[in-house]
Design brief:
The chain is α+β, with helices and mostly antiparallel strands and 129 residues long. It contains 2 helices and 5 strands; from the N terminus they run αβββββα. It has a 5-stranded antiparallel sheet with strand order 3-2-1-4-5, covered by helices on one side.
């Protein structure tokens, strides 16, 4: 393989992989938007020994089971309210443990990140040719 084609080939392959992941994340968000069950959760504090930032969301599924959603380290950036406040949670009936916050930023953020990574990879591949 020609050395001049390695970087464009890697950039294009990585770009297509990111584009597939972005499409998958966007379809997941659309599926939650259309078929998801919406419930109200309460933001609770983490265990004091836990070093991660942000709170946890405590909610009940349609069977009445108590579940906990960990929105991740960037939860304040995605619109998680302060501890003790309520927040809407959405999940698909078949998978209540795979829930997300019912905020536009939290639903769209993964697909936006993958689309941005795909654009950078395609740009790098185009600039290398």
């Amino acid at each position: 393989m020609d050395v001049e084609l390695v970087l464009p080939a890697l950039g294009t392959g990585f770009g297509f992989g990111c584009l597939l992941l972005a499409t998958r994340a966007l379809l997941t968000a659309v599926r939650l938007w259309t078929r998801g069950l919406r419930v109200t959760g309460v933001v609770t504090a983490r265990d004091p020994a836990d070093r991660r930032r942000g709170g946890l969301v405590f909610y009940h599924d349609h069977f009445g089971r108590d579940l906990i959603l960990d929105p991740g380290a960037y939860a304040p950036l995605c619109g998680l309210p302060p501890i003790g406040r309520s927040v809407p949670v959405v999940y698909v009936r078949e998978h209540p443990t795979a829930a997300r916050l019912w905020t536009l930023r939290h639903l769209i953020a993964p697909s936006f990140g993958w689309f941005l990574s795909s654009t950078v990879a395609f740009g790098t591949a185009a600039a290398a040719t």
